[in-house]
Design a protein that fits this description.
The chain has helices at 15-21, 40-46, 51-59, 70-81, 115-133, 147-158, 176-183, 203-213, 232-252, 273-284, 300-307, 332-339, 344-357, 365-373, 381-395, 401-412, 437-455, 459-465, 483-502; strands at residues 3-5, 30-32, 95-98, 101-105, 136-142, 163-170, 190-195, 221-225, 263-268, 288-295, 309-311, 359-361, 374-378, 425-429, 473-475. With 503 residues, the chain is of the alpha/beta class. The strands form 4 sheets. A 6-stranded mixed beta sheet has the order 3-4-14-9-10-13. Strands 8-5-6-7-15 form a 5-stranded parallel beta sheet, with helices on both faces. It contains 19 helices and 15 strands.
């Protein structure tokens, strides 16, 4: 399997090169040159596998045995999806019937969110390649709440002296628990930074660093980004959708591979790495119906799907579902690649326009194609809180604010959780409520949070709360400086940390 860029057909590289590079050299995103096909016989075989076994089978189609052997791939996924996961729930990803929906609990990993699944696998594969090549690798990441803690824990657990992590978060824009997951990290391989800006504001500095410090054949040190622009993330996250399809099909008696009985999936959506993985799974032949994106008032994804207007908003709005706050979701580029059947020239033209003007219009046939595959709903904080309340009152089930965005979106799009005898649909629950005391308390009141804390709060989360925090490094935004000027300062600050502490 070879990989290419969403923007340039001349780019061709191995999985290792794509994984270790983050962005393509031309600024595009890596994608497989061709998606493998999945048929009903494969799905029937896969339906009998555990989540780690399924991961080995599916990713084997994307990674040559010459790069990672069968036995090594198996051990990587055992380390990624067993260690640190809550064994008491019976599965890496359990699925519960909540009303008429199938709630897919992706949050039973060590940091209580779905990012554990993709991040741990990516970090463990990067650790393998670093050891194989005896190269020092520094991972860089910017987080709006969940990606950072997952990366910190994954790097700490990998415990590889060749691999270090520089992680950034926007000061005051993640939950107290998420911040504590970062600032209590006890690893010599991790450096934590807060910056005085919005969630997307570190993207340009990190992209610049990756463009000049990435993987090169004669270099013993390199920098790699592990946000979801890295192909490893959506590649692993497509497993969420294969697993969900198989488990729901099994529950309702659908023959695996039956294309007349597709399953719609609703999910909270930020940078679109998860939904990109879902669309890849669908294009491979998994009988998924509509992929439905629940977004908050930072709603570029909603506007793109509903109106064909992929326009960056002038500012990031603060919400109670901060982990999915986004201004420009980079994985929309991958969706465009697959929607155009791999027309790299067209995607390059579109993204060049977006990079220059912060606006991209997708009208006519392209908007129609988008709307055949996807739907979306925009959810306010008030609607999110009502979803938390409704699910608690009707089903005695607690959900986090991001999952609540998906639940509210499902209702807006016609998926009634209280209805009977309707086609099956699934909702991806992406995080545990334990990470969001502030938002859950707004939704349920102090008494509601106290009930959750007493009866369902994970003991592993309580242990994190008891730890003492260390102050992160702070990138300041000096008065009078423009966005471009301050990003240059932050870029240099990040380079200095990498050179002084990690190389």
């Amino acid at each position: 399997m070879k990989y290419t860029s969403t923007r340039d057909p001349s780019v061709s590289c191995s999985f290792e090169e794509a994984l270790c590079s983050g962005y393509s050299p031309d600024g595009g995103l890596f994608v497989p040159k061709a998606l493998p096909s999945v048929d009903s016989s494969m799905l029937k075989k896969w339906s009998k596998l555990s989540f780690p076994e399924l991961a080995s089978q599916v990713t084997r189609m994307f990674i040559s045995p010459d790069e990672i052997s069968d036995s090594r791939l198996t051990s990587i996924f055992e380390a990624s999806f067993v260690k640190g996961f809550d064994a008491s729930v019976g599965s890496t990803v359990p699925i519960k019937k909540i009303g008429s929906s199938f709630m897919v609990e992706l949050f039973h990993g060590p940091t209580f969110c779905f990012k554990d699944l993709g991040m741990r696998a990516v970090v463990n594969m990067l650790s393998y390649f670093a050891t194989k090549r005896q190269k020092n690798i520094t991972l860089v990441v910017s987080t709006t709440g969940d990606t950072g803690p997952a990366a910190v824990q994954a790097v700490a657990d990998a415990d590889n002296k060749l691999m270090t992590l520089l992680v950034h978060f926007p000061k005051g824009q993640i939950s107290a628990f998420q911040r504590k997951q970062l600032t209590t990290a006890n690893s010599p391989y991790v450096h934590v930074v807060a910056f005085e800006g919005d969630g997307d504001d570190m993207d340009a500095p990190l992209k610049n660093i990756l463009a000049t410090s990435g993987l090169k054949s004669g270099n013993s040190n390199f920098v790699c980004g592990v946000n979801s622009y890295n192909i490893g993330r959506p590649l692993i996250q497509l497993l969420h959708f294969v697993w969900t399809y198989l488990r729901v099909a099994e529950e309702v008696g659908i023959e695996p591979g039956d294309k007349d009985n597709r399953i719609d999936i609703i999910l909270p959506t930020g940078a679109m790495g998860n939904i990109a993985g879902g669309y890849m799974a669908k294009k491979m032949g998994v009988p998924i119906g509509k992929l439905c994106a629940g977004v908050n008032i930072n709603d570029i994804t909603f506007r793109a799907i509903e109106k064909g207007e992929f326009y960056k908003s002038p500012r990031m709005e603060k919400t109670l579902s901060e982990a999915i706050n986004i201004q420009v979701p980079y994985n929309f580029e991958r969706l465009l690649f697959y929607l155009t059947d791999g027309n790299q020239d067209l995607v390059r033209d579109w993204m060049t326009t977006m990079d220059k003007t912060q606006k991209l219009d997708l009208k006519g046939e392209w908007l129609s194609k988008i709307q055949r595959e996807f739907s979306s709903a925009r959810i306010t904080d008030d609607e999110m809180c009502k979803a938390v309340q409704s699910v608690r009152e009707n089903f005695n089930y607690f959900i986090d604010p991001n999952t609540a965005v998906a639940v509210a979106a499902a209702e807006k799009l016609g998926y009634n959780l209280n209805a009977q005898d309707i086609p099956p649909f699934a909702i991806l629950s992406t995080a545990s409520p334990c990470k969001f005391e502030e938002s859950v308390t707004v939704a349920l009141g102090e008494e509601g949070w106290a009930t959750y804390k007493k009866n369902e709060f994970p003991s592993r989360a309580a242990a994190i709360e008891a730890k003492d925090e260390c102050d992160p490094t702070l990138y300041k935004w000096p008065k009078g400086l423009s966005m471009e000027e301050v990003q240059k300062e932050w870029e240099q600050a990040a380079r200095d940390i990498i050179i002084k502490e990690f190389l």
